[in-house]
User: Fold this.
Amino acid sequence: MRVALGALMQESNAFCVARAGMQDFRNKYLETGPNLVGRLSGTRTEMGGAIAELERTGVGIAPLLATHGGAGGIVERNCHQALRDDRLNTSAPFDGVFLALHGAMMAEGADDVEGELLAEVRSIAGSAPIAISCDLHGNITPAMLANCDILIGYQHYPHDDAPETAARAVRCLVDTIEGRMQPVMAVSKLPMLFAPHLEHTSGAGPMVDLDRIARGFENDDGPISAVSYFPVQPWLDVPDMGFAAVVVSNGDVATAEAVANKITSEAWERRHAFEVETVPVDDAIRAALAIGNGPVILADTSDCVGGGSTGDGAALLEALLRLAPNAGSLVHLVDPVAAEQAAKAGTGVTIATEVGNRINTSRGTPVPITATVERVFDGQFTYDGGFLGGVTASMGPSVVLAVKETRVLVTTYAAYEWGYESYRAAGLDVQAARLVSVKNPMNYRLTYPFAAGAFVLDTKGPTTPDLRGLTWRSLERPFYPKDDSVDPRRLRQASSQIDEGR
Assistant:
């Protein structure tokens, strides 16, 4: 038995001013053929989990292309075309296909990259079963469901179960090939969007409740093989966005439909629990300093690189230098111009420069600083965990600038922020800092267990938690949170044909 294996992943943000290109994929991983297995085996990626499961069961691997572009703007047309590598045609014979996809990838001229890709794969694979794993923030579309047999999403947020998710999908795929499973899928989808800040699946919260309910339906002796929820990447801006539940059953579509409906109904009932409280930047700094010890997390979540922002928002840096330049703060900004200027000046040199707000200029002008170049390095680091655990990634040429007692990590490229690997690569000790800037809405809750406190900042950017305030061009109304009184039962369709709710 042989299974064709590949991955094409990127989380797109329709409100990001930048476009994603090939370099964004190379900065994480981009492997083909035997290199795919060699480099990604043993990592905490989907490919690592799938390879381990296939090798455990003695199934042969036909490697395709595997890459992850992180999160960013819409993917450039030429990059998208280059990544749609037609290796499947040359990989025959194979008995099944497993693909790791994000579920929220857009490209120039293609709003549903995964749906189009799966249609092409189906045309090549014929009757061979196709299984896919998706990020919990995927937008599940009719084309995706129509062109695969098994679709399973992450259970955890923060995303630390990518290999386990892939392994579950692969087990279902092998069972299908060998005749032990006849997979059928049901979906329920509602036009509601949540900011991801309170979607954590550990501790207490609305997603914890949904995870408990979903896991309760999965039983080795019952018909339900997998229950997945997809609260969706809320900054996509495509017509059929919404919270989806997908249930994979062994031949029992009626039960699968009932379970899918249950998950989305429970999500609707908890919709207000996902509302996010933000704090003005100046107020957050003063409150953080009043805590008395550190580190205290200042989360600039409207500039979340992991949600597709550019990472150059400098509102927090400006406020820190104005209010608390000697507090002992760490700030990370993307600014290729400032990084190049400082690197050319060299370590120990004091320079006058400007940093931040250079890519997304709508947030203001670059912040003028006089700083000493404290370190120049190549920007490489290895992820400790998450869906890129074990992968060596690059922020490009990077520098550490000292402005009084504030340290500014300036990088050439944006990089998904799992924990504090980027600060560590720069030689900066987050546990010794008083205030630490992060640009993610959730991961810091898990990866900074030693933090003395945390504040979500009221800033502007393409990953704002204020979903009501965005200018939507493609997403049609009604949808939550713009509309809060629409009866979801009128908009629900529990079948593999997702209605747009209009």
About this structure: The longest helix spans residues 253-269. The chain has three domains: 2-181, 187-223+236-276+469-502, 281-456.
